[in-house]
Amino acid sequence: EDVLNDTRFERAMQFYFVYLRLDWLWSLNLFALILLNFLEKPLWCQKYAPHTCDQRDLYFLGQLPYLSKTESLIYEALTLVILVLDIFYPLSYEGLNLFWKNSMNKLKVLLLFILACDILVFMLSSGPFRVAPYIRVVFLIMTIRELRMCAVTLVGIVGTYINVLALSLLFLLFASWLAYVTFEDTPQGKTIFTSYGTTLYQMFVLF
């Protein structure tokens, strides 16, 4: 009862309810982040003429209205500001110690820093690669619980998948060696299975 009557608790609850009321803004911002992946001009367009991405007859780019670099940066800066508020607002009701105990918050802050650096580099110079489109997807996965659980499940089966892949590769190597030895002195061996490397390729295509 003393905790509930504490003024700090009441103030924290007020900030928490405000955060919940702004949930529509956080969700809309995530949608805007993903939408930007489809609206920003591909990096390869900047290597050619300025109007390359406008030539729909020469390049299969769909009918999406691509944003210019300036428009894309303004769009991205606005979403970044909202994302900063979304990530750091819980400090107002959780406190500094509780906020940094959460590993998810630490990961979000790290990704936010990388995203900001990527935007800054893109603003100063146009490189051949950006990590921002991938980080936006990661933010979406981290925010939606169902997607986060799916990602955890996929990471969990990576070990099993690697084991199956290794066994399949071992079987392919053995089957290729067996086929090469079996058909070594036959017409097929002189025309198709001429070497172990060729046999390995043929068996890979067969499988």
Ordered list of secondary-structure elements with their pairings:
Layout (H helix, E strand, L loop, with lengths): L1 H4 L1 H15 L1 H17 L29 H20 L2 H4 L1 H6 L1 H22 L7 H12 L1 H12 L1 H25 L4 H5 L4 H11 L1
Helix pairs in contact: 3-4, 3-8, 4-7, 7-8, 8-9, 10-12
Main location: membrane
Keywords: Calcium, Calcium channel, Calcium transport, Ion channel, Ion transport, Membrane, Repeat, Transmembrane, Transmembrane helix, Transport
InterPro entries: Ion_trans_dom, TPC1_plant
Textual characterization of the structure:
It is a single chain. This protein is an all-alpha fold and 207 residues long. The chain folds into 2 domains: 2-156, no CATH class; 159-206, no CATH class. Helices cover 74% and strands 0% of the residues. The chain has helices spanning 2-5, 7-21, 23-39, 69-88, 91-94, 96-101, 103-124, 132-143, 145-156, 158-182, 187-191, 196-206. The N and C termini lie far apart (69 Å). The relative contact order is 0.08.
List keywords for this structure.
mainly alpha; 207 residues
Quickly describe the structure:
By secondary structure, this protein is mainly α. Helix content is 74%, strand content 0%. The N and C termini lie far apart (69 Å).
Uncertain regions spanning at least 5 consecutive residues: 1-5
Characterize the biggest β-sheet: none
Topology as H/E string?
A: HHHHHHHHHHHH
Instruction: Classify the helix fraction into a percent range.
Output: over 70%
Percent of sequence in beta strands: under 5%
Oligomer: single chain
What's the number of helices? 12
**Principal-axis shape:** elongated
Radius of gyration: 27 Å
- Record field, number of beta strands: 0
In total, the number of domains comes to 2
Distance between the termini: 69 Å
Structural class: mainly alpha
Average pLDDT figure: 83
